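TASK: fixed-backbone design
INPUT:
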């Protein structure tokens, strides 16, 4: 849905500003009015690349900061501070998107809404599983306990999660740096050097001819190549933002050799830990599966969990549904089956998630250890070829003199 920037006056008369997600400007004004905000201006946020990147960065940072804020909110509630006062206190020590988010939560709580209901108006920051957990905590009168468990759970996910991305950072940096160095040599160093040598030598060695052909192509058509690359990346981004394109991309990534199996285990670990935490809080299995499907960002996993949720609602066995999906490992399917029969599914899923996260960490470390020397060797061969292509004609010219 569109995102609108607003300015206005809060319920206590102080000026406020922020963003609101709504289907239309009228719906946005109604939503803010219900939250006690008197709207002065409401305008759609810019659709430029910079505006989109700024919004994405703000939301991403707010999500990561929410883990610490949930722990601090639990601590304030345990100290006997009211929920609205605790939210107001937290809003004063954060900046950016999370501060606006906490301010909106405080305004809606002051207007008589529950915390979980207020969080549903900000789906880009608060995932459905977290909202459901907080709703259970509010209904049971144990909100501070649930917030503490939620903060510890998200911190554990942050520590274990994204191991593959972290492991690939150094190899990717090495590849980018090496490619940049080669492009610099072929576009700035080789052309003037080879131009002088061509006037001296009758026949240029074949490595030099290959390097010269590549260099001439980059110098003469560099702008076109950059334009084509930019258009291709733009098309890829636009296609991947659609439902079909995103599903195709996610499925293709999971089928990659070496990296694919690690990503599958990472997804299974995250889903297992989410379902385990939800069930431990008293949420039924079918609702936990549905919330886990809405909390994951992988389209393939979302489809699998959605089908499993439908099978559970229809009274069918979940283990069979997971086995037919082809995404869950046999161990994970067996854990779901035994856990349901024994009534200990929540604890077994938590142990499964921790074990798989440990395996992901080991696999990503080994993958990095394997890729680093391979990339170094490839870059050394390419740079060595350019050096040979440069030195050979110089030696030939020296012999002619």
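OUTPUT:
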């Amino acid at each position: 849905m569109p995102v609108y920037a607003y300015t206005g006056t809060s319920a206590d008369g102080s000026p406020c500003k922020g963003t609101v997600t709504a289907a239309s400007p009228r719906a946005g004004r109604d939503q803010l009015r219900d939250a006690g905000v008197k709207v002065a201006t409401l305008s759609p946020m810019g659709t430029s690349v910079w505006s989109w990147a700024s919004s994405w960065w703000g939301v991403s940072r707010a999500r990561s900061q929410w883990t610490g804020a949930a722990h601090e909110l639990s601590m304030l509630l345990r100290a006997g501070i009211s929920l609205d006062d605790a939210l107001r206190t937290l809003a004063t020590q954060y900046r950016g998107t999370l501060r606006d988010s906490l301010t909106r939560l405080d305004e809606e709580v002051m207007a008589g809404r529950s915390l979980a209901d207020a969080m549903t108006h900000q789906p880009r920051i608060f995932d459905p599983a977290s909202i459901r957990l907080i709703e259970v905590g509010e209904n049971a009168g144990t909100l501070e306990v649930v917030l503490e468990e939620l903060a510890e759970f998200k911190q554990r996910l942050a520590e274990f999660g994204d191991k593959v991305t972290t492991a690939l950072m150094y190899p990717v940096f090495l590849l980018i740096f090496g490619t940049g160095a080669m492009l610099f040599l072929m576009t700035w160093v080789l052309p003037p050097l080879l131009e002088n040598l061509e006037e001296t030598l009758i026949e240029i060695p074949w490595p030099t001819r290959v390097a010269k052909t590549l260099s001439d192509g980059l110098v003469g058509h560099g702008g076109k190549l950059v334009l084509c690359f930019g258009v291709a990346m733009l098309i890829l981004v636009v296609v991947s933002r659609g439902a079909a394109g995103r599903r195709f991309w996610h499925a293709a990534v999971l089928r990659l050799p070496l990296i694919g199996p690690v990503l599958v285990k990472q997804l299974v670990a995250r889903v297992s830990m989410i379902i385990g935490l939800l069930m431990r809080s008293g949420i039924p299995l079918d609702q936990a599966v549905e919330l886990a499907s809405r909390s994951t960002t992988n389209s393939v996993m979302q489809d699998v969990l959605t089908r499993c949720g439908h099978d559970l609602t229809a009274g069918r066995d979940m283990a069979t549904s997971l086995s037919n999906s082809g995404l869950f490992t046999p161990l994970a399917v067996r854990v779901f089956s035994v856990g349901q029969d024994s009534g200990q599914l929540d604890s077994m899923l938590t142990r499964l998630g921790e074990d798989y996260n440990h395996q992901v960490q080991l696999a990503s470390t080994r993958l990095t250890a394997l890729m680093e020397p391979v990339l170094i060797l490839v870059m050394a061969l390419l740079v060595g070829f350019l050096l040979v292509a440069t030195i050979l004609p110089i030696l030939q010219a020296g012999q002619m003199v």
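COMMENT: Confidence is low (pLDDT under 50) at residues 46-54.
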